Amino acid sequence: MKAKQIWAMCIAGTFCLCGFSGAKAEERPAHKITPQEVAEMLADPSATLTYLNASYRAYKDVGPNDDTNQELRLNGAGFLNLPNNTSILYRAFVPLYSTEFPFDDQGVGDALVSAYWVPNKGNFILGYGGALITPTASEDYFGTGKWSAGPTLVVAQKVPGKFTIGGLLTHVWSFAGDEDRDEVSLTTIQPVATFFLNKKGTSVSFMSETTHDWQADDDPWQVPVTAGLGQILPPIGKQFIGVAVAGTYYAERADYAPEWDIRLTASVVFP
Asked: Could you give the C-alpha distances from 57 to 243, 250, 257, 259, 268, in angstroms and in order?
């Protein structure tokens, strides 16, 4: 395995382990946490929550021959409590690819790490921080070949027991890396609205991971529209697991990009 692939795995692993230590620092309420509360925390981009997450995505109708590309996105999240009822949240993910287009290949993509400050009180949350993309891709077509970084803004409006609306706004610029590769200037907008259907942890979500590539000459926008159904499973001891299924239609896309995808997600939550 190449050194940068090992580095990608270490990024996710390190952040996950840090999350466990951060979780110990927070005093959770003395009452027994319910599946509905876990669902609300998973839906909240500003929640002080530790979890491990795997998201499988099958991208359909890719390229001129309507191929299928697959991705397994490994995520970790944690937090560090600060004085004055504030926290630092951190996230990391590494994508693993199996593709038919543009080449029949498997490999690791670029890893993303982010951290942002949020207040812990109130139903309206506004936080800010930064994101870093590392050139860990095993092949050129799995990544950018660049180190990129930039600011992140997180916002959430919560109505406990009913819904959470929020999202992330990130922009990154490349600052180092392979000089033969294109520079990176990418905006990512991730709105999400989740509605809670019952006290058993069932929810429906509507979201997007819209991107604008400022370096692209043609088709700079990619606008996926996703709808999904989530469920928190009955706990095993104090351990909660969330599962979700979702489908995505790409309302705006570049040539040869997928027309739609399906997603299966499992999250191990440490409330």
From this structure: 14, 14, 14, 13, 18
User: Could you list the pLDDT tens digit for every one of the 271 residues in the chain?
Assistant: 455 555 555 555 544 554 444 444 444 555 689 999 999 999 999 999 999 999 999 999 999 999 999 999 999 999 999 999 999 999 999 999 999 999 999 999 999 999 999 998 899 999 999 999 999 999 999 999 999 999 999 999 999 999 999 999 999 999 999 999 999 999 999 999 999 999 999 999 999 999 999 999 999 999 999 999 999 999 988 899 999 999 999 999 999 999 999 999 999 999 7
| CATH number, domain with residue 118 | 2.40.160.40
pTM for this model (two decimals): 0.89
Q: Report which of 84, 62, 140, 151 is spatially closest to residue 108, judged by C-alpha positions.
A: 140
For residue 209, the enclosing domain spans 3-270
Count how many domains the chain has.
1
